[in-house]
Amino acid sequence: MWWVLALILAAGVIAAVVWVRGRVDDPVQPHGTPRDAGCCGQHAVCERDSLLAAVSSRVEYYDDEELDRYRGRAADAYDDAEAEEFRSVLYTMRDDDVPGWCRSLQLRGIELPDQLRDEVVLIVGEDRAARTHK
Predict the structure, then answer these.
(1) CA angle 105-111-112, nearest 5°?
(2) Contact indicator for 95, 123 with CB cutoff of 8 Å
(3) Residue 16 phi, psi dihedral angles, 5° rounding
(4) Which tens digits make up the pLDDT trace of 108-132?
(5) Do the beta carbons of residue 82 and residue 108 sit within 8 Å?
(6) pTM of the entire structure?
């Protein structure tokens, strides 16, 4: 009779361990979210739709070598004059080059200034919508 009680207790412990392990949140992936569900929202441009992200990790410059001096700087650490340097590069390129430019900045360790994020997301969104509706 005691072995039945021990068996039930062991099953309860195993069930509790399995339940607790399933409840622990992965800091990289929230519980219940598949890894390929889409953009994580941390990037100015979603890498899921970017062919450059999947194909190449080679850095491509967009006549913006001067931006390399901002490598390692946080996105919220730029003043308006520095953000204007990024803006001048952004508005001299074609809209369909913007996702590649953002990928290039990522590969180079350069964060896009917070002052430009909304503009970049708007440009990329409009370009994707225009390509989708052709």
Answers:
(1) 85
(2) yes
(3) -65, -40
(4) 999 999 999 999 999 999 988 888 8
(5) no
(6) 0.59
